[in-house]
Amino acid sequence: AAQKERSYKVTLLPGDGIGPEILSVAVDVMRAVAEREGIKFEFTEKLVGGAAVDGAGVPLPDDTLATCRASDAVLLASIGGYKWDSNPPHLKPETGLLGLRAGLGVFANLRPVTVLPQLADASPLKREVAEGVDIMVVRELIGGIYFGEPRGFGVNESGHRYAYNNMVYSTPEIDRIARVAFETARKRQGRLCSVDKANVLQVSQLWRERVTAIGKEEYPDVELSHMYVDNAAMQLVRNPKQFDTIVTGNLFGDILSDISAQLSGSIGMLPSSSMSESGPGLFEPIHGSAPDIAGQDKANPLAQVLSAAMLLKYGLGETKAAELIEAAVSAALDKGYRTGDLMSSGKTLVGCKKMGEILLETL
Ligand code: ATP
Ligand code: MG
Predict the structure, then answer these.
(1) Which pairs count as long-range contacts for 198-206, CB under 8 Å and 24+ apart, including other chains?
(2) Which of 86, 178, 215, 248 would bridge with 195, disulfide CB 3.0–4.6 Å?
(3) Would you call 187 a catalytic residue per the annotation?
(4) Which cofactor does it need (predicted)?
């Protein structure tokens, strides 16, 4: 068999606030792991968000989107800040982020929820419930009730105002998110829980029918279960360890992924990836640009570093390299190093740069 060419184009989007600081740590870590694994990265840095408003007059320059589209994966840090808060919509950093997601057609949002044993005390759950949680939430990102038509406001015959939205999913939309979820479950423990409200909603009945069919036809090796969203919300807090991979629609996924994010304690630890049909994936921490601590070397770079690990695993199929990065993060925490957001007594407080150096030593 021909040796797969392990050379990849990665677009880097540092964005605003703590973005440049945490991205620089992630890039150093990627370079180190590339050297160990015989991988080649061609990095290209581009402007997005407030930095692009200041530098190019728009939050998403054409050249940024074109470069992203032509790459194998995109690593984004964070965007936004007080400075641009009163800008008109077309000059807001957030408009750049939405444009980027739409421009790349990323319909599948993957959010891992892990409670590392070293950080179990940071979880609002009891240690025995929290420790060892390892879930992947796969959320449909560009369909469902947030986009369904028609939508709007009206006045009825009795003169009362009303408003309406539609939760609409077509079979191709369900099928493609289901496939991403099954593929994801396959790379994990091989268990997929599809969350819906099929006892009440027709859209959920079609969802359940299609997910079941795709499982039977294409992924018989993955163990599929179904759960109503109200029960899933309860189970995530009561016994989160029962879940491996969860797949759900846009609205339910929005809510469940925020519940799940809280389980792990710090926003500074959580990465995400957004995948398209065949183009490059977009990988970013779930936290924002943290303008309150920007430029002070205080930010936790681990969510960004773990986003780089997701890029390797889900964006490029470089699972081994991804696992090396995850192990380095775990080792740094084992040794007691903590940034301010994770700090507790008996641990060693480090800044963003220092945390990066510790990761490099481990690698
Ligand atoms: P956005 O609207 O972009 O999501 P936000 O205002 O909701 O941003 P964040 O920027 O995520 O929120 O910041 C929320 C809080 O968490 C802030 O106090 C910030 O300093 C802190 N925070 C966020 N990310 C990190 C990080 N990587 N390390 C340390 N603290 C962080
Ligand atoms: Mg936020």
Answers:
(1) 198/226, 198/228, 199/228, 201/167, 203/167, 203/168, 203/169, 203/249, 206/169, 206/171, 206/174
(2) 248
(3) no
(4) Mg(2+); Mn(2+)
Pocket lining: 341 vs ligand 1, CB cutoff 6 Å? yes
Tokens 């990066």 label which residue? Answer: 356
Marked catalytic residue, from 54, 72, 254, 297: 254
Core vs surface per residue 31-41: b (16+ CB within 10 A) or e: ebbbeeeebeb
pLDDT in tens, the chain (363 residues): 445 679 999 999 999 999 999 999 999 999 999 999 999 999 999 999 999 999 999 999 999 999 999 999 999 999 999 999 999 989 999 999 989 988 999 999 999 999 888 888 888 899 999 989 999 999 999 899 988 899 999 999 999 999 999 999 999 999 999 999 999 999 899 999 999 999 999 999 999 999 999 999 999 999 999 999 999 999 999 999 999 999 999 999 989 988 888 888 788 999 999 999 989 999 999 999 999 999 999 999 999 999 999 999 999 999 999 999 999 999 999 999 999 998 888 999 999 999 999 999 999
Residue 123: exposed, middle, or buried by beta-carbon count in 10 A (0-12, 13-18, 19+)? buried
Determine if ligand 1 sits within 6 Å of the CB of residue 293: yes
Residue 235 Cα to ligand 2 midpoint, Å, equals: 25
**Residue with the nearest Cα to atom 3 of ligand 1?**
288
Active-site residue (options: 230, 292, 320, 334): 230
Is ligand 1 within 6 A of the CB of residue 80? yes
Q: Is the CB of 261 under 6 A from ligand 1?
A: no
Contact status, residue 346 vs residue 315, Cβ threshold 8 Å: no
Tell me the C-alpha distance between 145 and 87, whole Å: 28
226 DSSP β-pair partners: 194
Which residue in this structure is represented by tokens 């581009």? 46
